[in-house]
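USER: Note each token:
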Amino acid sequence: MNSEKIIARFIGALFLIAMFSSLVGGGLIEDVLSKVNFLDTIYQSATQLNAGVILEIVNAISVIGIAILFYPIIKIKNESLAIGYVCFRILESIFCLAAAVIPLAIIKLNSDAEMLIIIRNTIASTLIPLGFSLGALILYFFLYTTKLLPRFISIWGFIAVILIMILNIFKFDMSIGMFLALPIILNEIVMGIWLITKGFNRSDN
């Protein structure tokens, strides 16, 4: 198996790990923080909260891993694009880490819980989607122009990112938010599986 195929499989696996850890980790944390008077029960929910934080940290590490593995691939075609992609994904990862550790700070500093929740909500609803969207637009542009993956994946990704940006701007409720987020969730799952099973398509370059 050549190195390109191995890298593609690693990237695909990281996409799936990032998606799983983000959805499950974020869900575990939100389930604790969304409870009425959550400060009264947060200590009893420490195990669940810690599990969510660990998964979010795994997500952040996976995001950086994807960027690092994609960097030399994108750099071959456009170094500026590669640097931009890595920078935005690092920012996304930093924001993910911040959103993950704030719940732990709430346990230590429950007197400042309300302010910390506001900060976390801003990070989770604005900064993380912003970093993700900008990085994703670069990636899908690169994949579309190089045809390393089938173009339907890139076009699907573009549309999905636009929906995330709309969600980020208009702050819809959770039901509409999940509907708008579903295309990018499915896109990254399909892309991850494609990379693992088929790898990059060099024949069209």
User: Anything to note?
Assistant: Residues 3-197 form one domain. Residues 53 and 61 are 12 Å apart (CA to CA). The chain has a mean pLDDT of 91. The longest helix spans residues 113-146.
